[in-house]
Amino acid sequence: MLAGLNRLNGWLMHLCRAIAMLCICAIALSLTLAIAMRFFFSKPLVGSDDFALLALVWLTMSVAPLGVHLSQHVALEFLPEALPAQAAKWLRVAGYLVVLFVCVVIVFYTTAGNSSHPASSRSFRVSAGCPWDMAMWPCRSASA
Fold first, then answer.
1. Which of 19, 46, 81, 95 could form a disulfide with 62 if both were Cys (CB 3.0 to 4.6 A apart)?
2. b vs e for 67-81, b when ≥16 Cβ sit within 10 Å of the residue's Cβ?
């Protein structure tokens, strides 16, 4: 069972690397093409900035698991190193509990905002409009 999970984890890390490389290439190509179209042909490429921004979001989200997996993610290490081993252990557990709490709050408000739940909220909602709705490319007008 553990070997299967390790294989799955390895496959997912390769997928994250591939997505990250694809996003970097897409950002570079999109912005280079936009610059070339604007300055050499005087025809701006509509939506290239929005596409690059969306690719940047995907890039960020695809490299975060890699950083955690390789233990190279952004972290504050000076406080646990300054504390005794037992206190550092409890500090680490408290940090995990805070992260878990924040994740639960985000999931709760995300699902409550998208249903008929009595505590429904518009918090954490992402607009379905441009540029996030890539299926409707080119973007719909603001009045739609």
1. 19
2. eeeeeeeeeeeeebe
